[in-house]
Amino acid sequence: MGDPCSPKEYAWGGLNCSYDLNSPRITDVNLSASALTGLISSSFAKLTATKYLDLSYNNLTGSVPDVLGNLLSLQVLNLAGNNLTGSIPASLLKRSQQGLLILRTEGNQNLCADGNSCEVKAETESKKKKIATPIIVIICLVPVVLFLVAIFIFCRMRKSKEKERFSNFVMGHQDNPLQLDNRQFTYTEVLRITNNFERTLGKGGFGTVYHGYLEDSTQVAVKTRSQSSSQGTKEFLAEVQHLIRIHHKNLVSLVGYCMDGDHLALIYEYMSQGTLSDYIRGYELCISLFNLHPEIVISHIRFLMFL
């Protein structure tokens, strides 16, 4: 590729040469901001006459070659603004401390003055990461926790309002003669009445209906809300309101109710002959009407007219 120093008028850019001797020698190398990448070449050790070496503000990586410490003529070494790692060679540090070399290494975050400082820096970085990790986790969890707490408070307030509404509703009907036989049961009483839900009568959208006995051996049907039911306290209140307002001898009557925490149940009088749907089914309706006693047919018709 030719001599970088001669002819003199065509010397390479970024280089200064000495022409005092018979053979020109490179004295200054300025490759600052030249978009250099990769490792620093150990070939720089051949520039024994170099006094100034500037490799700053490139993208050089890896460690600083130990052979640079052999350049005894070197007075300025600028390695600032790169991505160098590891420890600075002891020979360069010694010459810098003695005032024989101007050494610039700022901007290399992972470059250490010696092995001990690298260990301290690594430990510091490790501690920072250990501290930063839980902080980041906490910062991420706080909004989630606050959101869940808000949902919990909202649900509790909603349930509290529904219970208050139900209590006001019951208190508002205490003077109603239809309410005299209605009774509020606890969930423990419901368990005793149904013998721990031993006998199932049927299932619906609200929940399951169980057979039970009151203290006086009166048979009842206990309709409980299941956890998977889409109907809630609102639908429960609506059904209670309808049952209280509607009173007919051919309509099953409400014996009582249970609203104990999340447990909702309605206690009806027990119909031992089955449900109305057992009789009203297409062609079977005609057959059953002919076979039923006239008084039963008339009572059914009166009930339907009442509805």
**Total helical elements:** 6
Beta strands, count? 15
The H-and-E topology, N to C, reads as EEEEEEEHEEHEHEEEHEEHH
Architecture (CATH level 2) name of the largest domain: Alpha-Beta Horseshoe
Please outline the major beta sheet.
6 strands, mixed
Radius of gyration: 47 Å
Characterization of this structure:
With 307 residues, this protein is an alpha/beta fold. The chain has 3 domains: 8-113, Ribonuclease Inhibitor (Leucine-rich repeat, LRR (right-handed beta-alpha superhelix), Alpha-Beta Horseshoe); 179-272, Phosphorylase Kinase, domain 1; 278-307. It has 6 helices and 15 strands. It has helices spanning 90-97, 115-172, 187-193, 233-245, 283-291, 294-306; strands at residues 15-18, 25-30, 37-39, 52-54, 59-62, 76-78, 83-87, 102-104, 110-112, 183-185, 200-203, 207-213, 219-225, 254-260, 263-269. Strands 10-14-15-13-12-11 form a 6-stranded mixed β-sheet. A 5-stranded mixed β-sheet has the order 1-2-4-6-8, covered by helices on one side. The longest helix has 58 residues, at 115-172. The chain starts with 14 loop residues before the first strand and ends with a helix.
Can you tag this structure with a few keywords?
307 residues, alpha/beta, Leucine-rich repeat, LRR (right-handed beta-alpha superhelix), Phosphorylase Kinase, domain 1, six-stranded mixed β-sheet, five-stranded mixed β-sheet, 15 strands
